Amino acid sequence: MSTSLPLVFDAPKRGRPPRHLADLTDDELKSAVIALGLPGFRANQLARHYYGRLDADAARMTDLPAAVRPQVAEELFPRLMTPVRHLDCDGGTTRKTLWRLHDGTLLESVLMRYPDRATLCISSQAGCGMACPFCATGQGGLDRNLSTAEIVDQVRAAAAAMRDGDVAGGPGRLSNVVFMGMGEPLANYKRVVAAVRRITSPAPGGLGISQRSVTVSTVGLAPAIRKLADEGLSVTLAVSLHTPDDELRDTLVPVNNRWSVQEVLDAARYYADKTGRRVSIEYALIRDVNDQPWRADLLGKKLHRALGPLVHVNLIPLNPTPGSEWDASPKPAQDEFVRRVIAQGVSCTVRDTRGQEIAAACGQLAAEER
Predict the structure, then answer these.
(1) Active site: which residues (predicted)?
(2) Could you give the CA distance from residue 177 to residue 120 in angstroms, rounded to a whole number?
(3) Which member of 121, 336, 362, 368 is catalytic?
(4) CATH T-level fold of 21-76
């Protein structure tokens, strides 16, 4: 088994994102501030504006001398993302945003407000190189990796939208972040881990969201799962399994040709043991493809054997993309699938689906814009 990620997962080179405050560690930010001819204490001041006040506009930072604000804006607060459009549904409680990056690259994020929480689904890459045939993003291919700041700024923008009452329900707080948007997070490993640390560090060093409220999803890059387990983080790992057998998974999730179902589950067990966190198994239920009763039985048996009580199955009714041959399973098949997995001693629930009328499946909005 390989101990490093294959080069095929490297993103094509496009325009390199400009350096931003959110790319920098505390020490790097202090050095950058001093290089601008400013005293070191300004680093803490700038971090408080960005992470604490959720403000990325240096022109509004009136505690900075007016003469230095343009230079600070250019060097530490370049505009990373411009909203192309917002689409709302579910009474305004679900908001999908299409962003255009500095080089014209498109990405998506989805903010979902529930009675007890507000969750942001973010992208870690523009596009995706995993080529899963039922996924709109996977079919569009990989444009490039996102920078740490491009990942973090999706969260800052959503946190500001919640605070300012831009989402139905009035002012509130962003509580959860899931790396389930465009891209394979563990194929952009270094930047994703850096972004997680920024998202979860307390202000002024970060956005202060609990690590336990952050979920990192993967299609199953087994060595990277083990590496993540050793980072000392308490984030939830979500594995997009989609079928318990290698024969079908080789087709549905092509990376399975590199790391088998068993290798992925072994890595997931290592993660659960190291972190004490329950692993979430994502399973998109596709009509007449992976929804057979025997697959539900096999899934339950394999998960119970590999992870015991440290696993939960998150069954996802497929959100079909226009022109796709794939369709969601009928509700009776879905209910029977849930029943059979639970009968094997594994907890299983159906994910609440949102935003179908606004092309909420990853990659749909970007594909339409292109």
Answers:
(1) 108 (proton acceptor), 362 (s-methylcysteine intermediate)
(2) 5
(3) 362
(4) DNA polymerase; domain 1 (1.10.150)
